């Protein structure tokens, strides 16, 4: 990115805009929009291809994964939302998470959704969500996932213990950083945390989210971060199940199906928690907890 000149950025943005109407953008189209001569455009394109910001085929050009990452970062930087970037905090199945610095010197994280790789394995609910979109490109589904995750964090924060949502751009979200580790790696006893109390507190958060109309859908020891003081947050919300009826009407799912789906997703989340807490000798009845949450 350091090597990118203003004209490179301009061409990259033009290709991005043209991709709304093209699968691959022909060079003539870029020349027309850029109001530059063909030689200049060819030169800029060859630079962008060389540094892997653009992909190329016989039909034209497309912004690459790197290109979209760069465009998002440039936007955050231009808007003065991020002033520095550090190393990776975590790698998930669906995205990479990086340390970033905010203008007020706070640490935050930037999550890049790389969702396209897995969207077909995500089950009926997610496919419905993408149903009538013809080109399920990785970018499109990553962008949807980031928007969804940001929307959910905004709806839940600060009522439910989730990261603070700061901004959303393209396939990324900027959010508050939790200085801690996931439950999978944490040793609760070393942290001086009472497992039973923690379990109950997590159930309270699940209940609050449910009351607001959301089921996490991928809740487990990997998606709960805990700090040295024993405070925790629940992360990783893009696959959320929304209980808002109107949304489901829009997606043309009958409410019976939704009820069934919701129950099985919530029970799966609770089952994951129970499985994790078993090693701390916490044995509770899943159906009782389920009833407690939904009532
Ligand atoms: N707000 C945050 N503060 C600190 N670390 C975070 C935060 N969000 C994510 N991380 C780190 O990044 C990792 C991946 O994040 P997340 O679980 O949201 O991504 P994912 O790709 O959807 O993961 P998964 O494979 O679990 O679906 C987390 O396990 C955690 O280590
Ligand atoms: Mg995760
Ligand atoms: Mg995830």
From TrEMBL:
InterPro entries reported in the protein's UniProt record: Kinase-like_dom_sf, Prot_kinase_dom, Rio2, RIO2_wHTH_N, RIO_dom, RIO_kinase, RIO_kinase_CS, WH-like_DNA-bd_sf
Pfam family, one: RIO1
Any one of the GO BP annotations: maturation of SSU-rRNA
EC numbers for this chain: 2.7.11.1
GO cellular component terms attached to this protein's record: cytosol; preribosome, small subunit precursor
Residues of the Protein kinase domain: 83-295
Catalytic activity: L-seryl-[protein] + ATP = O-phospho-L-seryl-[protein] + ADP + H(+); L-threonyl-[protein] + ATP = O-phospho-L-threonyl-[protein] + ADP + H(+)
Names of required cofactors: Mg(2+)
SUPFAM superfamilies with a match to the protein in the record: Protein kinase-like (PK-like), Winged helix' DNA-binding domain
Segments forming a coiled coil: none
Record key words, sorted: ATP-binding, Kinase, Magnesium, Metal-binding, Nucleotide-binding, Serine/threonine-protein kinase, Transferase
EC category: transferase
MF term (GO), any: metal ion binding
Family: Belongs to the protein kinase superfamily. RIO-type Ser/Thr kinase family.
Name of the featured protein: non-specific serine/threonine protein kinase
Organism listed in the record: Methanococcus voltae (strain ATCC BAA-1334 / A3)
């Amino acid at each position: 990115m350091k090597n990118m000149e203003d004209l490179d950025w301009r061409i990259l943005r033009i290709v991005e805009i043209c991709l709304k109407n093209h699968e691959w953008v022909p060079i003539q189209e870029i020349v027309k929009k850029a109001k530059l001569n063909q030689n200049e455009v060819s030169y800029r394109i060859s630079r962008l291809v060389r540094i892997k910001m653009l992909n190329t085929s016989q039909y034209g050009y497309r912004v690459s994964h790197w290109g979209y990452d760069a465009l998002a970062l440039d936007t955050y930087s231009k808007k003065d939302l991020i002033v520095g970037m550090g190393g990776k905090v975590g790698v998930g199945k669906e995205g990479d998470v990086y340390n970033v610095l905010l203008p007020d010197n706070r640490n935050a994280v930037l999550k890049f959704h790389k969702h396209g790789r897995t969207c077909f394995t995500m089950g009926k609910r997610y496919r419905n969500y993408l149903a009538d979109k013809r080109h399920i490109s990785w970018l499109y589904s990553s962008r949807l996932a980031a928007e969804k995750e940001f929307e959910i964090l905004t709806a839940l924060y600060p009522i439910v213990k989730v990261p603070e949502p700061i901004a959303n751009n393209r396939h990324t979200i900027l959010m508050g950083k939790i200085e801690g580790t996931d439950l999978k790696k944490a040793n609760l006893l070393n942290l001086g945390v009472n497992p039973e109390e923690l379990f109950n507190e997590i159930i309270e958060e699940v209940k609050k989210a449910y009351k607001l109309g959301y089921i996490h859908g991928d809740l487990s020891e990997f998606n709960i971060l805990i700090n040295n003081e024993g405070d925790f947050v629940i992360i990783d919300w893009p696959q959320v199940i929304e209980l808002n009826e109107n949304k489901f009407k829009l997606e043309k799912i009958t409410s019976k199906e939704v009820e069934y789906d919701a129950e099985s997703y919530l029970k799966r989340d609770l089952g994951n928690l129970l499985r994790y807490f078993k090693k701390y000798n916490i044995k509770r009845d899943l159906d009782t907890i389920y009833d407690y949450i939904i009532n």
